[in-house]
C-alpha cells in the first residue's frame, strides 16, 4: 500500500534531486542549455565544471552566500521563536473554560485558511507607505511611520511580521492539541501538592508538550528556512536584495536575467545539506534528552 | 503522598492556600477572578482582531470605488459590488478559478488517498525500510523548490505534462503527501490494533479492513489532511507560475496580472482575493472542528 507513494515520490522528488545535483556540477545557464528555437533544435553546450560552483559559493567568492545565509538564519530563528511563543500563549488561553471559546478559536485560526498569496497581498495593501492603514494605526499609538517595503531593515521587519501572522495558527492548533492530551490528573495531583501555576507550567505542561514542541520546532525550522511566498510576493520586484533568504535568492538566480540554472541548483543542494545536517543534529539531541 | 519532605516556607503556605478551598471541593484551575477574566478575554479579543484584521480590511476595500485603497474613508458612503462584477465579467478570473478548483480538488483527492494509505501502511505493516521511510518523508520537506523546479520542469516536459493540470497536481502531491502521511501515521497509531484484527477475523482483506473500519475512525485526521492538501494547491505560486501557460493559469498566478511592475490595481486585487478566500474558508469551516484532534493525534505526536 505504500508503493504508490514511494513511486510518486521517487519519480518526482529523487529524480529531480539527482538531476539538480548534476546541474550543480555544470555551468548550465539559459544560454547553453538545449532548447528549441522555432523548428531548430539547439543541443546543450554546457560542460561539467565539477565542484567549481560549490567552491565559489562556499569560499564566499560569489559574495552573496554568507550574507544571505546569516539573514536566513536570523529570519528562521526569529520566526520560529515568535511562532512558538505566541502560539503557546494563545493555546494556553484557549485551553480554559470560557465563553465564546469556539468563536475565538475560529477567528484565531483564520489566517491559516487564507492562502499565503492572498494574505501577503492584504499585507502589502496595508503596509503601503503612502496610503497604507498600517502606518495610520502605528502613528495613532505614537510610533513613527515607516516606509515598510523600501528600506532593508523595514523590509526585514515586515516579512517577519507577515510570516508570523501566517504561521501562528498552525503552531497554536498543534500546541492546543498537545495541551489537551496532557492528563488532567497530573494537574490535580500537583494542585494537591501545592504547586504554583508557574511550577505546574514548568514541571507538567512543558514536559507534557515536549513531543509536540519537538516536532513543531523541527518542521517550523524547515518550513521557515524554505519559505518562498512571503518574501517573494511581499517584496516583489522592489526588493533591495537584502531581505532575500537563500531560497528566494536561488529562485531569482534561476528565473531573472540570464537564468543561472547551475548556480540555483548549487544553492538548492547547499540548502538541503544545511537542513539535513540541522535535523540530524536536532533528532540526535532529542533522542539523547529522551533517554536521559 | 501528602507528607511533605520539603519544608520551604513558600511551599507550606501554597499548600495551606490550596488545602482550604479543596475542602469546599469547588476550587479548580478553571476558576478565576473577574480581573483575570477581563485580562483573558481582552487578550483573546485583541489577538482575534490582529488575526482577522487583514481579511476584514481587504473585504472592506473591495466594496468601495476604484480609488478606495487610497482613501478608505470613501468606502462607507459608496458601497458597491462593482469590483466584483468587473473581476467576474471583464477578466479571465472565472477561468483561473476553474483551473484552481481542478488542481486543488485533484491534489486533495490524490493527497488524501496517498497519505492515508501510506500512513496506514507505515503504522501497521513492518517492511524493509519502514523506519527510513518516515525519515525520508521528513527529508522531502527540506528540498527547496529552487533546486527542484528546473529538473521537475524537464521531467514533466518529457511526459508532456507542462501546461497540464495533472502535472501540477502531481507536483503539489509531492509537497503535501509526505507531511500528511506523517500525520496520518501518528493518527492511525492511536487506533487500537484490535480493530484490524477483528476485521481480519471477519474475513476482510487488508484493504477492506482499512477502507471499511479504519478510514471511518480516522475522519479527523483525514479532514486535516484534506485541508492541508487543498491549501497547498490553492495557494502555491512558484511552480504554478513556471509550469502553466496563460490558458491554464491558476488563481495565484492569474491575480498577479492585476499588478504590474510599478502599480497594483487594488480594486481588482481585493475583490479577486475575497473571491479566492471563499472556497478556502468553506473548506476551513468544514474541517475546523476536526483540526485540533486531527493534528494532535497525528503528526505532532510521532
TrEMBL record, chain A:
It comes from the Bacteria. Gene3D superfamilies: MetI-like (1.10.3720.10). GO terms for cellular component: plasma membrane. The keyword Transmembrane applies. Residues 69-282 form the ABC transmembrane type-1 domain. InterPro entries: MetI-like (IPR000515), MetI-like_sf (IPR035906), UgpAE/MalFG_permease (IPR050809). One of its GO terms (biological process) is transmembrane transport. The keyword Flavoprotein does not apply. The chain crosses the membrane at residues 69-94, 106-126, 158-179, 216-235, 264-282. It is found in: Cell membrane. Keywords: Cell membrane, Membrane, Transmembrane, Transmembrane helix, Transport. Belongs to the binding-protein-dependent transport system permease family. This is Sugar ABC transporter permease. It comes from Streptomyces kanamyceticus. The lineage of its organism: Bacteria, Bacillati, Actinomycetota, Actinomycetes, Kitasatosporales.
From TrEMBL, chain B:
It is a multi-pass membrane protein. PROSITE patterns: ABC_TM1 (PS50928). Signal peptide: none annotated. Residues 97-287 form the ABC transmembrane type-1 domain. GO terms for molecular function: ABC-type maltose transporter activity. The keyword Transmembrane applies. This is Carbohydrate ABC transporter permease.
Amino acid at each position: 500500500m505504500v508503493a504508490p507513494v514511494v513511486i510518486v515520490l521517487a519519480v518526482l522528488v529523487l529524480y529531480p534531486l539527482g538531476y539538480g545535483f548534476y546541474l550543480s556540477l555544470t555551468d548550465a545557464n539559459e544560454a547553453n542549455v538545449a532548447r528549441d528555437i522555432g523548428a531548430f533544435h539547439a543541443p546543450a553546450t554546457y560542460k561539467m565544471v565539477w565542484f567549481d560552483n560549490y567552491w565559489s559559493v562556499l569560499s564566499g567568492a560569489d559574495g552573496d552566500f554568507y550574507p544571505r545565509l546569516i539573514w536566513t538564519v536570523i529570519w528562521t530563528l526569529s520566526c520560529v521563536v515568535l511562532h512558538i511563543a505566541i502560539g503557546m500563549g494563545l493555546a494556553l488561553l484557549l485551553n480554559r473554560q470560557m465563553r465564546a471559546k469556539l468563536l475565538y478559536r475560529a477567528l484565531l485560526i483564520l489566517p491559516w485558511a487564507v492562502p499565503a498569496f492572498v494574505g501577503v497581498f492584504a499585507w502589502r495593501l496595508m503596509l503601503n507607505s503612502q496610503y497604507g492603514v498600517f502606518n495610520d494605526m502605528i502613528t495613532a499609538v505614537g510610533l513613527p511611520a515607516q516606509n515598510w517595503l523600501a528600506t532593508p531593515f523595514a523590509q526585514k521587519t515586515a516579512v517577519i511580521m507577515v510570516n508570523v501572522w501566517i504561521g501562528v495558527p498552525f503552531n497554536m492548533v498543534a500546541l492546543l492539541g498537545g495541551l489537551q492530551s496532557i492528563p488532567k490528573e497530573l494537574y490535580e495531583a500537583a494542585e494537591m501538592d501545592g504547586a504554583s501555576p508557574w511550577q505546574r507550567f514548568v514541571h507538567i505542561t512543558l514536559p507534557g508538550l515536549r513531543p509536540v514542541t519537538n516536532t513543531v520546532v523541527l518542521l517550523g525550522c524547515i518550513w521557515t528556512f524554505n519559505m518562498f511566498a512571503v518574501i517573494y510576493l511581499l517584496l516583489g520586484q522592489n526588493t533591495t536584495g537584502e531581505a532575500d533568504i537563500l531560497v528566494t535568492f536561488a529562485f531569482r538566480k534561476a528565473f531573472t536575467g540570464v537564468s543561472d540554472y547551475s548556480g540555483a541548483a548549487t544553492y538548492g543542494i547547499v540548502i538541503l545539506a544545511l537542513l539535513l545536517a540541522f535535523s540530524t543534529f536536532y533528532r540526535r539531541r532529542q533522542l539523547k534528552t529522551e533517554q536521559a | 503522598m501528602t507528607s511533605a519532605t520539603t519544608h520551604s516556607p513558600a511551599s507550606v503556605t501554597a499548600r495551606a492556600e490550596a488545602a482550604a478551598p479543596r475542602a469546599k471541593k469547588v476550587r479548580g484551575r478553571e476558576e478565576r477572578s473577574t480581573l483575570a477574566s477581563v485580562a483573558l478575554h481582552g487578550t483573546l479579543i485583541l489577538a482575534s482582531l490582529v488575526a482577522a484584521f487583514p481579511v476584514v480590511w481587504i473585504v472592506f476595500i473591495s466594496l468601495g470605488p476604484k480609488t478606495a485603497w487610497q482613501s478608505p474613508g470613501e468606502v462607507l458612503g459608496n458601497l458597491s459590488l462593482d469590483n466584483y462584477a468587473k473581476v467576474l465579467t471583464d477578466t479571465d478570473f472565472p477561468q483561473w478559478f476553474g483551473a484552481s478548483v481542478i488542481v486543488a480538488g485533484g491534489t486533495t483527492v490524490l493527497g488524501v488517498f496517498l497519505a492515508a494509505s501510506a500512513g496506514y501502511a507505515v503504522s501497521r505493516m513492518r517492511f524493509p525500510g519502514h523506519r527510513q521511510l518516515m525519515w525520508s518523508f521528513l527529508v522531502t520537506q527540506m528540498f527547496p523548490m529552487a533546486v527542484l523546479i528546473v529538473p521537475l520542469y524537464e521531467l514533466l516536459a518529457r511526459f508532456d505534462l507542462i501546461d497540464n493540470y495533472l502535472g501540477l497536481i502531481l507536483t503539489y502531491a509531492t509537497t503535501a503527501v509526505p507531511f500528511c502521511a506523517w500525520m496520518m501515521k501518528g493518527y492511525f497509531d492511536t487506533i487500537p490494533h484490535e480493530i484490524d484484527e477483528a476485521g481480519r477475523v471477519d474475513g476482510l482483506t487488508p484493504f477492506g479492513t482499512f477502507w471499511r473500519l479504519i478510514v471511518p475512525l480516522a475522519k479527523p485526521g483525514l479532514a486535516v489532511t484534506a485541508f492541508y492538501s487543498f491549501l497547498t494547491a490553492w495557494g502555491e505560486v512558484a511552480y504554478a507560475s513556471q509550469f502553466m501557460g496563460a490558458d491554464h493559469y491558476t488563481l495565484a498566478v492569474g491575480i498577479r496580472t492585476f499588478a504590474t511592475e510599478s502599480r497594483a490595481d487594488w480594486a481588482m486585487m481585493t475583490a479577486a482575493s475575497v473571491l479566492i478566500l471563499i472556497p478556502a474558508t468553506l473548506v476551513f469551516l468544514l474541517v475546523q472542528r476536526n483540526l485540533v484532534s486531527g493534528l494532535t493525534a497525528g503528526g505532532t505526536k510521532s
